C-alpha cells in the first residue's frame, strides 16, 4: 500500500506522538532522524546545553549537510567553533587536533567565502592559550545558550529545516484512540491493543527500512525479540551491540538460560581475534567451529529461555497492515482529529489488527479457543497403551543394572550389570535412523527393532570383579570408540565395536569408584579412600592428586563453562576444584542444609551429581531428596523432597535440554519434574509396563538407573532391578506433561504419529 508524502508524514507524526507519550525516547529521536519529518530543536538544544556536541552534531547531520547551503554550513561551523573553545587539551592535545583535522575538513569553502571564518577560529584558539585552565571550565552555560539562540535563527532560515520545526497539534493519544475505534475488539484485552499497535509499528518500520529505529523500539518495548538481528550483529563481530540488545530484554540474573547466553557472548568476545569459520554442509555440531557452536548455542538458549521464548515469533499479518488501516481511515482522521470534531460517524471498523483471517480461523472455532490440552495435575501412566514403551531384547544375565548410558550421538545404549557384564544395543539397518526417527521406533514394521549387539568374534566385555562384591562400585565412561569401565577391580579399556579389551590400569586397592574425562586428555579418577587422581592419558602419568574427602568418592562432574570439577563423597560432602590450578575453591556438606523425611534421616549417600546441559547449575541427588546448586559457590538454590510413599530415590538425571529431571524411585515409579519449579508433570508406573521374567520372578521391579537421550528430551532409558532395560517416550510430541489431544467429537484422537 503506497501513501502519498502527506499521508506518510501524518502517519509518522502519529507514531512520534505515541513514542513520546509512552516514553520511548531513543526510538522517538531515531525516528525523527530516519524519517526527517520533524526537527526537534528542543532535543537538539538540550544536547548542546549539556555539552553533548557529538549528539547534537549527529542529529543535525541526519537532516542536512554542511555543503547543503550557507545556513547549514554556518550551523555546523558554529558548533565546531564551540567544541573547539571547550576542548580541554589546549596545548596541542589530541582533542583539539581532532577537531581541526576532522571537523574543519567537513566545512566546505563556498564561492563567496573569504578567510574570515578561519581567522576567527585561529583567533579563538590563540585567545584560549592565555586563559588559566580552571577558568576554561567555569561558566560555559552562557556561551552554549547564546549558541542555541543563534542556531535557532539559522534553522528558521534554513530551507532544509524551516518547515520541520513545528509539530502538528494532535489530540492526546491520537494513534491509540484511532486504533481502538478501528478495532474495538482489541481494546478490551489487557495490554492487547498497545502490543498489537507496537507490532504494527514494527512492521511499518521494517518495511520502511528504518533499521535503527526498528531495533531500538524492539529493545524499548520488549514485545518482540529479534533473534535474526542478534545473530546478524554477532556474525559481524559487534558483540557489544549483541550484549546491549540482549540486556534490554533480560539480565544474567534472571535465569540460567539468560546467564548462559551472556556467558556465550563473553566467550565469543574472547574468540574475536580468530577468523570466521563456515559450518560444514552437514550442519552437525561436531563439525562446527567453536565460534559457530557458540552462535548456535545462543540461539538455542533463546528458544528455551522463559523470558524470551514467547517473544521470538512475530505475529503473521498482511503486508503493510498499518498503512492499509491508515489508508482506510485517513480522510476521516484528518477531518475529525485536526479539526477537533467529535463526530464518530462512518468510522471504518476491522475485526482484527495483527494476524490474518486464515490464522484466526485456525485459532478459534465455534466453541471458542483450542490449542493443546495440558493437564493441571500430573499425567499418570499406569498402562502400556498410555506411552511408547519398549523392553530391549536380552538373553544375557538377569543381574541388576548398575550403570546405563546412551552413546554421545544416541545411536546405541550401553548397560553394565552388577555381575560386571556389559550389554550394548544398536539399531540394525542404520545407527543414525534411531536418532532421526526416535518417535516412531515402537511402530511395527516401520524401522528395525533394536538388537543386542554381539561381535562376530563372540567376545564379551566383562570387568574384573572386586574381591569383596558388597563393597564394589561400578562405573564407566565413553571416549570415542573406547569404553573405560570398572566393577571394583582395575579400570579396563574396551573397543566398543569389537568388544576387545585393549588395556587395563590401576590397582584393586584403593579401589576406583568413579571417573570422568576432562578436556585436555585428562581422566579424573575418584577412589574409595577419598582421594582423586588426575591422569594424563597421553603421557600415562598422574598429573595431580586431590585430597579433600574422608569418605569414598561417590561421583564427579565437570563444568566446561567455569572450568571446575565437583566431587561428592558418600558422606554428602561436596568439593569444588579449579581445573586450571587444581586448587580446592570451596566445599560444602550437602546433608546439613536441609532436613529429610524421617524414614531417610539415617541415609546421607549422594548417589549422583550432574551439571545441566549449559554447565551452569549442578543437580545433586540424595536417596532422600534432590537439589539444584550454584556451580561456583555450591550454594543450594532449590530442593525437592518427594512424597513419603515414593521410598528412596535410586537415580535422577537431566533431560538433554535441561527443562525436566527424570527421577527413579525404589517404589517402581519414575517421576518427571520441571527443573525450574520441581513441579511433577508426569508419573510412570514401571511395574505395570514390565513383565516379570519366568526364570527370576522378583516381587519388586524398580529403576536402578535412568539415562536421558542426548538429543531428544522426551526419551529415556531405565535400567531395572531385574536386569532389563526399557526405553520410554510419550505418545505425543508435546512431551510428558501433555495429555492426548481431543478430537472434534470430544474423544481422543487416534493419531499418535508425531515427529520432532
Automatic annotation (TrEMBL):
Gene3D superfamilies, A to Z: YVTN repeat-like/Quinoprotein amine dehydrogenase (2.130.10.10)
GO biological process: regulation of DNA-templated transcription
SMART domains: CTLH, LisH, WD40
InterPro entries, A to Z: CTLH_C, LisH, Topless_fam, TPR1-like_2nd, WD40/YVTN_repeat-like_dom_sf, WD40_repeat_dom_sf, WD40_rpt
Entry keywords, A to Z: Repeat, Repressor, WD repeat
Domain called CTLH: residue spans: 223-281
TM ranges: none
WD repeat positions: 546-587
Domain of life: Eukaryota
Pfam families per the UniProt record, alphabetical: TPR1-like_2nd (PF21889), WD40 (PF00400)
Name of the protein in question: CTLH domain-containing protein
Species per Swiss-Prot/TrEMBL record: Arabidopsis arenosa
Amino acid at each position: 500500500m503506497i501513501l502519498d508524502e502527506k499521508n506518510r508524514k501524518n502517519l509518522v507524526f502519529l507514531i512520534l506522538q505515541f513514542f513520546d507519550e509512552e516514553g520511548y525516547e531513543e526510538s522517538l529521536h531515531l525516528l525523527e532522524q530516519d524519517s526527517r519529518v520533524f526537527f526537534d530543536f528542543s532535543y537538539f538544544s538540550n544536547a548542546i546545553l549539556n555539552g553533548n556536541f557529538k549528539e547534537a552534531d549527529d542529529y543535525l547531520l541526519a537532516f542536512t549537510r554542511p555543503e547543503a547551503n550557507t545556513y547549514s554550513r554556518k550551523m555546523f561551523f558554529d558548533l565546531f567553533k564551540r567544541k573547539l573553545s571547550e576542548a580541554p587539551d589546549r596545548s596541542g592535545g589530541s582533542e583539539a587536533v581532532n577537531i581541526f583535522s576532522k571537523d574543519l575538513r567537513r566545512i566546505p569553502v563556498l564561492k563567496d567565502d573569504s578567510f574570515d571564518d578561519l581567522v576567527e577560529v585561529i583567533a579563538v584558539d590563540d585567545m584560549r592559550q592565555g586563559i588559566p585552565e580552571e577558568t576554561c571550565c567555569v561558566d560555559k552555560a552562557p556561551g552554549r545558550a547564546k549558541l542555541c539562540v543563534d542556531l535557532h535563527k539559522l534553522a528558521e532560515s534554513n530551507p532544509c529545516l524551516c518547515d520541520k520545526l513545528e509539530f502538528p497539534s494532535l489530540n492526546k493519544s491520537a494513534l491509540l484512540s484511532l486504533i481502538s475505534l478501528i478495532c474495538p475488539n482489541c481494546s478490551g484485552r489487557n495490554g492487547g491493543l498497545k502490543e498489537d499497535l507496537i507490532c504494527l509499528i514494527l512492521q511499518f518500520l521494517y518495511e520502511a527500512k528504518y533499521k535503527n529505529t526498528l531495533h531500538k523500539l524492539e529493545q524499548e518495548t520488549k514485545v518482540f525479540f529479534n533473534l535474526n538481528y542478534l545473530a546478524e550483529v554477532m556474525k559481524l563481530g559487534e558483540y557489544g551491540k549483541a550484549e546491549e540488545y540482549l540486556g534490554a530484554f533480560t539480565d544474567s540474573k534472571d535465569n540460567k538460560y539468560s546467564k548462559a547466553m551472556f556467558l556465550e557472548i563473553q566467550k565469543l568476545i574472547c574468540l574475536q581475534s580468530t577468523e570466521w569459520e563456515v559450518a560444514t554442509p552437514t550442519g552437525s555440531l561436531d563439525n562446527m567451529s567453536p565460534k559457530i557452536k557458540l552462535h548456535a548455542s545462543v540461539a538455542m538458549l533463546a528458544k528455551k529461555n522463559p523470558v524470551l521464548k514467547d517473544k521470538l515469533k512475530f505475529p503473521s499479518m498482511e503486508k503493510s497492515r498499518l498503512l492499509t488501516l491508515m489508508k482506510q481511515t485517513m480522510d476521516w482522521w484528518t477531518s475529525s482529529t485536526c479539526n477537533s470534531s467529535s463526530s464518530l460517524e462512518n468510522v471504518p471498523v476491522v475485526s482484527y489488527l495483527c494476524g490474518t483471517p486464515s490464522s484466526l480461523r485456525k485459532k478459534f472455532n465455534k466453541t471458542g479457543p483450542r490449542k493443546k490440552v495440558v493437564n493441571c495435575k500430573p499425567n499418570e501412566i499406569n498402562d502400556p497403551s498410555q506411552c511408547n514403551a519398549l523392553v530391549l531384547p536380552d538373553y544375557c544375565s538377569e543381574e541388576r543394572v548398575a550403570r546405563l548410558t546412551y552413546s554421545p550421538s544416541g545411536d546405541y545404549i550401553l548397560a553394565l550389570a552388577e555381575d560386571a557384564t556389559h550389554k550394548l544395543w544398536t539399531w540394525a539397518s542404520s545407527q543414525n535412523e534411531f536418532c532421526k526417527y526416535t518417535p516412531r521406533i515402537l511402530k511395527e514394521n516401520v524401522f528395525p527393532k533394536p538388537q543386542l549387539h554381539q561381535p562376530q568374534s563372540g567376545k564379551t566385555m566383562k570387568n574384573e570383579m572386586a574381591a569383596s562384591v558388597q563393597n564394589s562400585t561400578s562405573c564407566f565412561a565413553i571416549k570415542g570408540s573406547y569404553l573405560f569401565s570398572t566393577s571394583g577391580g582395575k579400570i579396563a579399556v574396551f573397543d566398543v565395536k569389537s568388544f576387545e579389551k585393549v588395556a587395563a590400569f590401576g590397582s584393586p586397592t584403593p579401589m576406583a569408584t568413579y571417573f570422568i574425562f576432562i578436556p585436555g586428555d585428562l581422566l579424573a579418577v575418584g577412589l574409595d579412600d577419598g582421594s582423586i587422581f588426575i591422569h594424563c592419558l597421553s603421557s600415562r602419568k598422574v598429573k595431580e592428586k586431590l585430597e579433600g574427602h574422608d569418605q569414598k568418592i561417590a561421583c564427579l562432574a565437570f563444568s566446561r563453562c567455569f572450568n571446575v570439577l565437583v566431587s561428592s563423597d558418600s558422606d554428602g560432602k561436596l568439593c569444588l576444584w579449579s581445573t586450571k590450578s587444581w586448587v580446592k575453591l570451596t566445599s560444602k556438606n550437602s546433608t546439613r542444609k536441609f532436613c529429610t523425611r524421617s524414614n531417610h534421616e539415617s541415609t546421607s549417600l549422594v548417589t549422583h551429581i550432574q551439571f545441566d546441559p549449559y554447565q551452569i547449575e549442578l543437580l545433586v541427588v540424595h536417596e532422600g531428596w534432590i537439589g539444584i546448586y550454584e556451580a561456583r559457590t555450591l550454594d543450594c538454590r532449590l530442593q525437592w523432597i518427594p512424597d513419603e510413599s515414593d521410598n528412596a530415590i535410586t537415580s535422577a538425571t537431566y533431560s538433554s535440554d535441561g527443562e525436566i529431571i527424570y527421577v527413579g524411585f525404589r517404589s517402581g515409579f519414575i517421576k518427571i519434574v520441571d527443573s525450574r519449579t520441581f513441579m511433577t508433570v508426569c508419573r510412570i508406573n514401571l511395574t505395570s509396563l514390565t513383565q516379570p521374567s519366568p526364570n527370576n520372578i522378583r516381587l519388586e521391579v524398580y529403576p536402578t538407573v535412568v539415562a536421558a537421550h542426548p538429543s531428544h528430551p522426551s526419551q529415556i532409558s531405565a535400567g531395572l532391578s531385574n536386569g532389563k532395560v526399557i526405553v520410554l517416550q510419550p505418545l505425543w510430541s508435546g512431551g510428558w506433561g501433555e495429555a492426548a489431544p481431543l478430537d472434534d467429537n470430544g474423544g481422543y484422537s487416534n493419531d499418535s504419529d508425531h515427529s520432532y
